Amino acid sequence: MEEKFKNLPLRSGVGIIVLNKENKVFVAKRIDNPKNFWQMPQGGVDHGEDFLTAAYRELKEETSIKDVKLIQEIEGTITYELPKHLLGIIWKGKYKGQKQKWFLMRYLGNDNDINIKTNKPEFLEWKWIDLDMITEIVVDFKLHVYRKLKEKIKKIIN
Q1: pLDDT (tens digit, 9 = 90+) per residue, 89-139?
Q2: Dihedral sign, CA of 98, 101, 106, 109?
Q3: CATH code (residue 29)
């Protein structure tokens, strides 16, 4: 990592693993990275906001999903750092990566209620995939995050 970015803080973030009735995972393709990379909903924590409130807000802002039941808060946090070519660009250059708190939730609504064409859209398209596939479709610098999550989710739902 370049010297000038070394002392940047990690952004405090949340991630949401949304499962449907068949235990398939919600993923979406980012507008700013339209290659064949998909991710689960995630975002930053606003000042004065707790993690769970941030998770519900981010989920609604990115997907219009409101009808969920919390299954479990994933123990601990998971950190990732941005690759060199994104440092100084993403998050207005204020952070070198994210320290995330993840939540596992069950989607109770209908697929028709999911709408990624929000006020500030982040995604081009979305789909449900098998849990084992999440490590096949994620951008490389978040692969270790998705590997850990896959392990933890399997223990919870099996």
Answers
A1: 888 889 999 999 999 999 999 999 999 999 889 999 999 999 999 999 999
A2: negative
A3: 3.90.79.10
